[in-house]
């Protein structure tokens, strides 16, 4: 038997997997190792940021006010909440500097809520791109959060001007807004990746999220003071703990402490920063690994 004949015979008896391995072929869309996945994602960082910027510019491209809506939308929400909660329900009586208190909470929550809501559609709404090209799928939810974070940075500048207009004075504590923003972005990115994986298989979750986010917003102290409620109402211990450990409430309180004079006068408990960091690491690292584990499933079906 010649060598060529032996090779053909061996090839005929080999399984497809053995043939693929022998010729250096790999499964298209197969999940890489975690270090390699991180390296691939880092290699496409310019695509992620460019994609996020393009999405931000296109969001209100057909509106006459254009990018101004990034600022107008949370301000309109704050105006509605002020009338309902500040005037009608008199939540402002328990909170000094209620207007700065409210607009700071609205701006922070707008980023967190929008990141999670957009995360549910990050993969499913880009199935054409997912099926046509090979790239780390985490690029999609991350680009969504980066887009919203870019918008948040613009609105934070406007927030600073509004705070000055309502009598707040710049202080060294304003610098604490920087680590707060970074921790909050890490938390939002991790949550967006979790919801992106779930939403890729169950698109109906995007219809449910507005109700979940609305409930979460009301329990995060955006329009009212959690501390005042805990002082005046005798809530069950577990409810008090849930309110205190609520990640959205923690980040909102940290931002208020950094920017509002009346909050700066009362030092926050030292464990608040530990809680904020813990939530950022848990959501950021855990969410990334959770999303990566389903990498080869995105785009199927």
First and last CA, distance? 46 Å
Structure annotation, total helices:
15
Overall strand count: 0
Task: Supply the number of structural domains.
Answer: 1
Order of helices and strands: HHHHHHHHHHHHHHH
| Overall helicity | over 70%
Name the poorly predicted regions. Answer: none
Rg for CA atoms: 24 Å
Largest sheet: none
Short précis:
It contains 15 helices and no strands. The protein is mostly helical.
Topology, please?
Elements: H1 3-13, H2 16-22, H3 34-43, H4 45-59, H5 69-88, H6 98-119, H7 127-132, H8 139-165, H9 177-201, H10 205-218, H11 226-232, H12 237-245, H13 247-259, H14 261-264, H15 271-292
Descriptors:
301 residues; mainly alpha
Protein model, in words:
The chain has 301 residues and is mostly helical. The chain has helices at residues 3-13, 16-22, 34-43, 45-59, 69-88, 98-119, 127-132, 139-165, 177-201, 205-218, 226-232, 237-245, 247-259, 261-264, 271-292. The protein has one domain. Helix 6 packs antiparallel against helix 10 (205-218).
């Amino acid at each position: 038997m010649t060598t060529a004949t032996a090779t053909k015979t061996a090839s005929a008896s080999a399984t497809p997997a053995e043939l693929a391995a022998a010729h250096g072929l790999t499964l298209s869309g197969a999940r890489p190792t975690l270090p390699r996945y991180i390296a691939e994602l880092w290699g496409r960082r310019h695509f992620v940021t460019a994609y996020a910027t393009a999405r931000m510019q296109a969001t209100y491209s057909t509106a006459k006010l254009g990018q101004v809506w990034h600022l107008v939308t949370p301000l309109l929400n704050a105006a509605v909440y002020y009338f309902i909660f500040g005037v009608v329900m008199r939540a402002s009586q328990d909170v000094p500097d209620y207007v700065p208190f409210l607009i700071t909470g609205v701006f922070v929550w707008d980023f967190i809520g929008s990141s999670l809501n957009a995360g549910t559609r990050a993969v499913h709404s880009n199935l054409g791109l997912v099926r046509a090209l090979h790239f780390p799928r985490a690029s999609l939810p991350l680009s969504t959060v980066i887009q919203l974070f870019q918008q948040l940075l613009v609105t934070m500048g406007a927030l600073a001007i509004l705070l000055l207009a309502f009598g707040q004075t710049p202080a060294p504590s304003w610098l604490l807004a920087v680590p707060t923003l970074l921790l909050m972005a890490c938390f939002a990115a991790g949550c967006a990746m979790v919801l992106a994986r779930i939403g890729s298989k169950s698109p109906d979750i995007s219809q449910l999220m507005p109700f979940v986010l609305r409930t979460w917003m009301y329990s995060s102290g955006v329009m009212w003071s959690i501390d005042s409620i805990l002082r005046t109402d005798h809530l069950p211990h577990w409810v008090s703990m849930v309110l205190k450990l609520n990640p959205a409430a923690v980040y909102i309180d940290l931002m208020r402490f950094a920017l509002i004079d009346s909050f700066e006068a009362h030092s926050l408990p030292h464990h608040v920063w530990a809680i904020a960091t813990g939530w950022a690491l848990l959501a950021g690292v855990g969410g990334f690994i959770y999303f990566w584990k389903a990498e080869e499933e995105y785009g199927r079906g």
